[in-house]
Write a structure and sequence with these properties.
By secondary structure, the protein is of the alpha/beta class. It contains twelve helices and 17 strands. Strands 3, 4, 5, 8, 9, 10, 11, 12 and 13 form a nine-stranded mixed sheet that branches. Strands 6-2-1-7-16-15 form a six-stranded mixed sheet, with helices on both faces. Strands 14-17 form a two-stranded antiparallel ribbon. Helix 1 runs parallel beside helix 4.
C-alpha cells in the first residue's frame, strides 16, 4: 500500500486525502491545529464554491451541509457613475454557488478523515521536516498555502505579474441582514466602486447558522483602505457599515441593524497574487509537490481560490490513481502541474483583468447587462469556468461579436 503524506488541512489537502482513503491508500495529513482549535479561531476566508466544484465533493460524501447552506443561484454587479447613481445594475444566473465557513468545513472533514481510517497528526512542520518525510513516504504533497513551507516553492516569474498586494481585504460575517427588495436573499452582489475597490455581499453558513458575508476589496491607499491597525471587532464592523453607507448606500439599510456572528468573524490584511513552481527539491534530493494556493494564489475578487483548490485535488487524485506503483518523480510532478495550469491560467488571467481599470469594451459589456439577461448570465456562469471569458472579455472584437450574437448590439 502506497504511503502518502499531505501537509496542510485545507480544501485541497483534505479533499485529496479523503479521496485517496476511499481508494485504499495509506494517507497521513499533518496540520498545526486541532478541529476544535480551528472552530474557535478567526475566520480565514470567504470561500465561495462554484457549482462544478461542489459536484466534486459529492462522490466522497463531503457535501455535509447541503440542507443547511443558503444557495447562491444568482450574482450580479452594481457600479455607480460619477454622481453615485448606479450605471450598471443587473443579476445573472450562476447555477448555485455556496459558502460554508471553513471553521465549520475543515474541522468536520478532519474528523471524517480520522473516522475513515486516515492518520491525522497535529504538529507544526518545518522545511527540515519535509526533507525527512520525502525519504519515508512515496509522495509528499504540500497543501499549506501560508507560512514557512511556501518558501520551498520558487516564484515563477514568467507566470506572476505582481509583487505587491493589489487589494487590501476586510471581511465580516453577520446576522440580521435584510434582502435587497429586487433580489431576495439568494444572490451574491459585487458593488464595484471606481478607483476605490469592491464591496461584495453574499449569503453563507457559519458556526451559528445562516449568515451574510461582506468581502471588502480596497485599492491600496484608496478611500476603502482604512482597516490597517483596526483590531476591535466592533470597530471593524462599524467602519465597514460606514463604508457601505458612503459607497454603496443602496445596501446600507440591509445591514444597518445587523450584528456580527461572533467575536472572531472579522479579518483584514492583504497578499500578493503569485504563481509558484510546483516542485520543491530538498537537500537530500527528495521532492515535494505543491498543490492549490501553494502554487497559484489569486486575489479573492475573482472567486477562484477554493475552486482552484478543489479542482487541483480532483486532478491530483486521478493522476495518483492512474500512476499505479511507479515512482512519483520530477517528470510526473511537472506533467501533473502543467495539466492543472492548463485550466488555472484562465483564472489567473481573469483575476488579473479584474484588478485593473476596465477598458472601454469591458465597460460596454457590463453596461449591456442592464438590458440583456444573456450578457449577465454569460459573465456570471464564466466565474465557474474562466476559459469562457476568452470568448467575450479580453478582445474588443470578440466582445462586439458576442454582444451582436446575443442581440445586445
Amino acid at each position: 500500500m502506497r504511503r502518502i503524506l499531505i501537509v496542510g488541512a485545507g480544501q485541497s489537502g483534505l479533499q485529496l486525502g479523503l479521496g485517496l482513503l476511499a481508494h485504499g491508500y495509506n494517507v497521513t495529513i499533518m496540520t498545526e491545529r486541532t478541529p476544535d482549535e480551528i472552530r474557535a479561531a478567526r475566520v480565514t476566508s470567504t470561500q465561495i464554491m462554484m457549482p462544478s466544484t461542489i459536484e466534486l465533493e459529492k462522490p466522497y460524501g463531503l457535501d455535509l451541509w447541503a440542507d443547511q447552506v443558503p444557495p447562491i443561484p444568482r450574482a450580479g454587479f452594481t457600479i455607480p457613475g460619477p454622481d453615485g447613481t448606479p450605471v450598471v445594475n443587473w443579476l445573472g444566473e450562476m447555477g448555485g454557488a455556496q459558502s460554508v465557513d471553513q471553521r465549520m468545513k475543515m474541522p468536520a472533514w478532519m474528523e471524517l478523515f480520522v473516522e475513515r481510517g486516515g492518520n491525522l497528526v497535529v504538529h507544526p512542520v518545518a522545511v527540515s521536516d519535509i526533507d525527512w518525510y520525502t525519504r519515508n513516504y512515496d509522495l509528499v504533497v504540500v497543501a499549506a498555502g501560508k507560512g514557512e513551507l511556501v518558501s520551498m516553492f520558487d516564484r515563477d516569474h514568467d507566470k506572476s505579474e505582481f509583487t505587491t498586494p493589489q487589494r487590501q481585504l476586510a471581511v465580516a460575517y453577520f446576522h440580521g441582514a435584510t434582502p435587497r427588495p429586487e433580489v431576495g436573499y439568494d444572490a451574491l452582489h459585487v458593488n464595484g466602486i471606481p478607483e476605490a475597490g469592491e464591496i461584495i455581499m453574499f449569503p453563507g453558513l457559519t458556526l451559528s447558522g445562516p449568515c451574510d458575508i461582506i468581502l471588502l476589496e480596497a485599492v491600496p491607499g484608496g478611500p476603502l483602505d482604512v482597516f490597517g491597525g483596526v483590531r476591535d471587532p466592533d470597530e471593524h464592523w462599524a467602519l465597514m457599515r460606514e463604508l457601505v453607507r458612503r459607497f454603496a448606500p443602496w445596501d446600507h439599510d440591509r445591514i444597518s441593524r445587523a450584528e456580527l456572528t461572533d467575536p472572531m468573524c472579522v479579518l483584514s490584511g492583504g497578499f500578493s497574487p503569485i504563481v509558484r513552481k510546483p516542485i520543491a527539491e530538498l537537500p537530500s534530493g527528495g521532492l515535494a509537490l505543491g498543490i492549490g494556493d501553494v502554487l497559484v494564489t489569486n486575489d479573492p475578487l475573482s472567486g477562484q481560490g477554493s475552486n482552484n483548490a478543489a479542482r487541483a485535488a480532483d486532478l491530483y487524485l486521478r493522476a495518483i490513481l492512474a500512476h499505479g506503483d511507479r515512482p512519483f518523480d520530477a517528470e510526473w510532478m511537472q506533467t501533473l502541474f502543467d495539466a492543472f495550469w492548463d485550466r488555472a491560467r484562465h483564472g489567473v488571467k481573469f483575476s488579473t483583468s479584474l484588478l485593473g481599470a476596465p477598458p472601454a469594451h469591458v465597460q460596454m459589456l457590463m453596461g449591456a447587462g442592464n438590458e440583456n439577461p444573456a450578457v449577465c448570465d454569460a459573465i456570471m456562469s464564466a466565474f465557474d469556468n474562466p476559459v469562457e471569458f476568452e470568448e467575450f472579455m479580453y478582445d474588443p472584437e470578440k466582445t462586439k461579436a458576442f454582444l451582436a450574437k446575443v442581440g445586445a448590439l
